[in-house]
Amino acid sequence: MATIKDIAQKAGVSVSTASRALNHNPRISEKTRQRIEEIAKRLGYQPNYNAQNLTRGESNMVGIIFPVTSDTAPANPFHIDLMRGISMALKPIHYEMVVAIAPTADDLLQSVKSMVEQSKVHNFLVFYTTKNDPITEYLRQKQLNFVVIGHPNHRKDRYVDNDNIAAGRVATDYLMDHQQVKCPAFLQSASDWVYEQDRNHGYQQSMRNHQLPAISWRYTEDGPAIKDFIKQHPQIDSIVCADDLLLVRLVRQLQEFNLPTICFNNSRLMGMLMNQEDKVDLQPRKLGQQAVELLFEPGEQCRIVDFKIND
């Protein structure tokens, strides 16, 4: 493999001149730069982007920060698709991913601090939003470059998101229009995620627009099971489920009732497990790609990615 020394020798210039030319230093004339670039191309030179970034005091890594996740939690297919989109967007700019995932907020914070202090990671994508989050507070204090995926809790945070209120409303409208139902119930997890709250708001908007009462159920370890809840509310004739992993958890109980159901996201895994349900495709790969683009566009505040219904 050709080195910068090989290029310099072939061009009859110093190593520092060859390096400056390949890094588009304005001190190097256009004629010299083009000649050195042609030699580098002929020799098959592959620049060391990591070394270039470390010269500037940072690595060519983007830190991916997952929400606090227990060691036994199943992989979230939405996150997997996000990472596919991120990987596609990072490849052409010669960056790689490094992941922070931990079972507690303290452990997660220590992992992120290690990325910053030891690995010189200065760019981050945060896969969640939550109030009083110590991880994003640390990123702000250190004035690091980061983008959150979801609706931010801090007004200055840059973010990529879907319009989850609109998604909840459209999903409910679609279910009633296409399945001819009258009383869909909204199911959400025990977690107080902003995206679930927003989808619930959209569901409630749709119910008000149809002049129908809203019925919501939240999963809790010690609360009523969904099958008991439905039996207590026999008017329920369909389901809007705020999260696909929650639907996987509940699918056996719900099979007893065979209710028309719509859920959020259209991952391949969800398609294989529950191909009978209508799904709101949040386009997580596109979210990941847009998050990377926004990360390296510091003058831009946010991007909203469209969703679509897959039936």
TrEMBL record:
One of its GO terms (molecular function) is transcription cis-regulatory region binding. Residues 2-56 form the HTH lacI-type domain. Keywords: DNA-binding, Transcription, Transcription regulation. This is LacI family DNA-binding transcriptional regulator. InterPro entries: HTH_LacI (IPR000843), Lambda_DNA-bd_dom_sf (IPR010982), Peripla_BP/Lac1_sug-bd_dom (IPR001761), Peripla_BP_I (IPR028082). Pfam families: LacI (PF00356), Peripla_BP_1 (PF00532).
